[in-house]
């Protein structure tokens, strides 16, 4: 390729980019003008977009683009100058020109002179019905502007998609980066975050070592006092002095290095968290990216069906993982087409029902509890439930007597069945029975759910919930056969402790009672091919999982806790691993496997069909005593929150209202852990910890400080007093407290 050819190819690529941006400006602006043809700002933005495209096409020598953009610009200028009022016919023609410009700017397009001449003639008739338009000639090249044409969509118009090219978006440069590199960056940042968590046990060990060394120095000082009454040789006195000096120097060095490690660990974890959050944000895109052309599609489909339909969108800037966005486009298109075809009535029917002639579809996107929530509602006729009931009987899906007693919710579920349609004839839009079942399938592939509600005569509403990202999954981590497994929270109905006497035999299978029904009980160890638990005498830890109508209780060894896991795909050479979807890393760097719940339920069905489902042994053995924790805090709210968290995890908990109350409790009872605040009346937490460390019976008791003070000097003050762990209330959450307790004293049972 010659340099000139390379330059031409580069210019054509830039023209394609600009056409992509400006045609989106035109589409959005023209749809707004259809509702109000006199909007000056929309007329101005559309005119500038057409003008910019004409100039860009002239630069790269695309004559067809110049001709089409020129007549569109003439039409918009006439509207600006009040020489014509844009009618539906004008909007149709301008949208047709927008589509033609898109085709012209697409590499390898098949737009011929006939298409362009026909469009120019059409616009000429619309602008001046009495006279044919004069042929448009390409202006001489000397009129090329000195500066390149900039893509500047106006404020009211949705931003153009950059398609990974070098464009400006919100004032920032956007660079093209491959998905593989983004995934690699996210993987590395998540591993970096995990590595910083491994410093915590090191720091805790150094804190214990510092405390033991301090106790050793104190014991040596006491020995020195006792030996003063004895005549020691000069060598013994020198040896004792050297030991005291070395221990003092060691204590100072250890305190210094422990403080440095604590500061480094805190800073490293903060930076690793920022790195991970930034890497994750690189995968996020605004929800508007999936909406390109949807408003136009709704409008055009409505007109083809003789209906007036408008799409309103809220939450366009809601951030979603780009992989999720790609998978949402098809189900959203299905639902929008369904709303136009089945939901919105004709203008005549709407006027008779007391509604505006124009139908309205609202699409709203928002974040809720780590999920992307989409609500798509129309103000149409709703679902004809009796027609659904008749169709159910006609298709042999239910006997007539049973169908007559079906509730509204039960009838609506039939609409999601494969092949089910309320259309008697097949059209280009519907009637093939492919629609809501495909939507449900695609949403479930995203680990999400979709539901339908309706009000007869007033409209329907679809509610979709999908994860914000497929890169991260919120999960319950459990232990099975001394290995960690994660159940995605989206599939978990609940967690429970099941006493041996709660397990019943029904038709030779083990069940337990849950929400008014018997739920089958299976052992995770059998499903995942792990050794069975040896603690069969204790209450069973059960995870109740649900997928559609299938529900089972899965018995595990213990609950480790809820975690947000960065999904690490399994090596492709492994193929599909039974019952496992992916892997992840826990905070300590250990591997956890993420359970494929749908696959797991299929495995349960296979075991039931073959009669190989094993029973879970039930024995009544004495349980080990629970570990005791003393919580000292002058705030009733904080005290009660910590008490309930620890009780729910299985610990025995006592509380004290201040340091003095806590000190009295420590001297009169035995505890495995002290959790204390700092700022309290009568005796603060620092005084309490200092007293504890000077007491021979209590000096080895693990101590955790939980305080609102998160400054580095406050952390050092608490740790220097003898605390083993410092947790800031400002960043306090359930997992942080429980993880720290497990790190210090282990599980609830001795």
Detailed description of the structure:
There is one protein chain. The protein is an alpha/beta fold and 750 residues long. It contains 22 helices and 25 strands. The strands form 6 sheets. A 6-stranded mixed β-sheet has the order 12-16-17-15-14-13. A 5-stranded mixed β-sheet has the order 4-6-7-9-8. It has a 5-stranded mixed β-sheet with strand order 18-10-11-20-19. Helix 7 packs antiparallel against helix 8 and helix 10 packs antiparallel against helix 15. It is globular and about 130 Å long. The model is unreliable at 133-169 (pLDDT under 50).
Which helices and strands appear, and what pairs or packs with what?
Elements: H1 3-35, H2 40-60, H3 63-80, H4 88-105, H5 113-127, E1 167-169, E2 172-174, H6 179-197, H7 199-227, H8 234-282, E3 284-286, H9 294-304, E4 308-314, E5 319-321, H10 322-343, H11 347-352, E6 358-368, E7 371-378, H12 385-394, H13 400-404, H14 408-414, H15 436-445, E8 449-455, E9 459-467, E10 472-480, E11 483-488, E12 492-498, E13 504-506, E14 509-514, E15 517-523, H16 524-527, E16 540-547, E17 550-556, E18 558-566, E19 580-585, E20 591-595, H17 597-610, E21 628-632, H18 636-648, E22 652-656, H19 659-668, E23 673-676, H20 685-694, E24 703-707, H21 712-720, E25 725-728, H22 734-745
Helix pairs in contact: 1-2, 1-4, 2-3, 3-4, 3-5, 4-5, 6-8, 7-8, 9-10, 10-15, 12-14, 19-20
Strand order of the largest sheet: 12-16-17-15-14-13
Average of per-residue pLDDT values: 80
Helix content: 40-55%
Question: What's the oligomerization state?
Answer: single chain
CATH architecture of the largest domain: 2-Layer Sandwich
Computed structural class:
alpha/beta
Radius of gyration: 35 Å
* Biggest sheet overview: 6 strands, mixed
CATH superfamily of the largest domain: Histidine kinase-like ATPase, C-terminal domain
The CATH class assignment of the largest domain is Alpha Beta
Number of separate structural domains: 5
Alpha carbon gap, first and last residue:
77 Å
At CATH level 3, the topology of the largest domain is Heat Shock Protein 90
Strand element count: 25
Count of runs of 4 or more consecutive helical residues: 22
From the spread of the alpha carbons, the general shape counts as: globular
Determine the strand fraction and express it as a percent band: 15-25%
